[in-house]
Design brief:
The protein has 452 residues and is of the alpha+beta class. The chain is built from 14 helices and 16 strands. The strands form 6 sheets. The protein has a 4-stranded antiparallel sheet. A 4-stranded antiparallel sheet has the order 10-9-11-12. Strand 4 and strand 5 form a beta hairpin. The radius of gyration is 26 Å and the shape is elongated.
């Protein structure tokens, strides 16, 4: 019940902040352009609260359907306008003013992301140094001569300050044939060496899973410790207890919780031999892995929750922090990178190079919002920034009904020297409505599939 409440509240906060900021972008630029604003609404449909404010009597409102919002301006195409206000109607503004007003919403979301990321950089983002364990023998990392103890400090020349940044740099390179890792190695005494890591063997399923593990880039966080053994599950039947240290599975050394999860998930129904340390003694525990269906595929579960060795975590801990000026620059860079990545991913989905399962709807958003809120304020702020970028980029797509669709009309107006015809506008709106309906149906389908 508490978990559900977290999700509802976190989702409401996410929507509220992002919608208000988006619509404020439209509102402020419209006011600067001299356009009369009739209503500022958070939500659609029937108004449940409103109040008129200011010289123009702008109506500030809350509406019943909370999935969005709108700014209504005086516009002779949408209804009668008082002759005294006609010069301030949106439709009478120059095409460049209309472009500025429409583009201001998505750009406000991108600006919000910059500020949110900058805030997390000023506060300091905790993480772990990107120190790697020995890669599996047949992995791309092994082929690139990555070794145990190597610390990745850059990917393709872009600095890496933590394991989390390494993961992002690798994911951002999706679609490339290779990346160049710059690693520090003890025997080189501080001089980085470059390693060519091939990405050519990665398929869609690999990118949707754990790409670092698939590539053999395993974090060296020490042998994981059992935090909880779930009742009635294979690990309990095998005799595992809270506090046990899993040092190997089927003879393969385990250097992080993800190592155990990756090996276990890949072998549903198999019997794996866990080498366990308890109170200074070492023993082997055969665990028959339970097979379950997750998102349409069978995976193996042992029924344990693992944690990182606190001593190792403390030694590898790092905090990525910048001053205000550099934090703003880093926030702008991160926003640009994520925006470009979002566009590339949309392109890959359209061409079939990425799965339609990457499209998520409100249920998944609520679930992740709740999880991020429970993980801490910095994680939640980072999630807000990520969703703000998605909202900004999606609204700039040239799809009728979206801001990008209106910008497309204005571009056509600039080229032909006159506004598009009412007929063309109407047809475009219908096409846009159909496209958005299909997109929303797909997003909801993916949401329900993930849940059930």
């Amino acid at each position: 019940m508490i978990d559900t409440l977290y999700k509802i509240v976190a989702f409401a906060v996410t929507l509220g902040v992002l919608v208000v900021f988006h619509e404020l972008g439209h509102y402020l630029v419209a006011r600067l352009a001299g356009v009369k604003v009739l209503r500022f609404s958070v939500g659609f449909g029937k108004m449940i609260w409103s109040r008129r404010v200011g010289r123009d009597g702008t109506e500030w409102a809350l509406s019943a359907i909370p999935l969005g919002g709108y700014v209504k301006m005086a516009d002779e195409r949408e209804g009668p306008v008082d002759p005294a206000d006609a010069p301030r109607a949106f439709n009478r503004q120059s095409v460049w003013r209309r472009i500025a007003i429409v583009a201001a919403g998505p750009l406000a979301n991108l600006l919000l992301a910059v500020l949110l990321f900058a805030g997390t950089y000023v506060a300091g983002i905790p993480g772990q140094r990107a120190v790697l364990a020995e890669p599996p023998a047949a992995s791309p990392a092994a082929a690139a001569d990555v070794r145990a103890g190597d610390e990745v400090v850059a990917v393709d020349g872009d600095p890496v300050g933590s394991l989390q940044e390494l993961r992002w740099r690798i994911v951002r390179a999706q679609g490339a044939d290779r990346v160049v890792l710059s690693v520090l190695r003890d025997e080189l005494q501080g001089s980085p060496v470059e390693r060519q890591l091939s990405l050519s063997g990665m398929d869609t399923a690999d990118w949707e899973g754990n790409p670092l593990a698939t590539l053999g880039l395993r974090a060296d966080l020490g042998a994981p410790i059992v935090d909880q053994v779930l009742p009635g599950k294979p690990a309990e039947r095998a005799g595992l207890r809270s506090g046990d240290r899993i040092v190997a599975v089927d003879g393969k050394p385990m250097r992080s919780p993800s190592d155990v999860a990756l090996l276990t998930n890949a072998q549903p129904g198999a019997t794996l031999v866990y080498r366990v340390q308890r109170n200074g003694a070492t023993f082997e525990a055969p665990v028959t892995i339970e097979a379950v269906d997750q998102n349409g595929r069978r995976v193996g579960l042992a029924g344990v929750r693992l944690r990182v060795d606190p001593d190792v975590a403390e030694r590898s801990a790092v905090v990525v922090r910048y001053g205000i000026g550099e934090a703003l620059a880093q926030g702008a860079r991160k926003t640009w990178e994520l925006s470009a990545f979002t566009v590339r991913m949309l392109g890959r989905i359209v061409t079939g190079d990425a799965s339609l399962k990457n499209i998520s709807g409100p249920l998944t958003m609520a679930d992740i919002a709740g999880q991020s809120a429970q993980a801490g304020i910095l994680v939640f702020v980072g999630y807000l920034a990520l969703i703000s970028i998605s909202l900004g980029v999606l609204n700039l797509l040239p799809v009728p009904l979206l801001d990008g669709g209106h910008l497309l009309y204005y571009l056509a107006e600039i080229i032909k020297g006159s506004p598009v015809s009412d007929r063309a506008f109407e047809v475009g709106q219908r096409i846009g409505m159909a496209m958005l309906a299909v997109l929303m149906a797909l997003a909801l389908f993916n949401d329900v599939s993930r849940l059930f």
